[in-house]
Amino acid sequence: MPVAPPPAPEFGSPVDMTPVPEVLAFLAARRSTSAVTLTEPAPSAGELGILLRLATRVPDHGKLAPWRFVILDGEAKAEFSAQLEALALGRGDQTAAAKLAKLKVPPLAVAVISAPRAAAIPEWEQRLSAGAVCATLLYAALAMGYGANWITDWYAYDADAGAILGLRDGEKVAGFLLMGTPREPPLERERPELDPLVSRWRSAG
Question: pTM surpassing 0.70?
Answer without folding.
Answer: yes
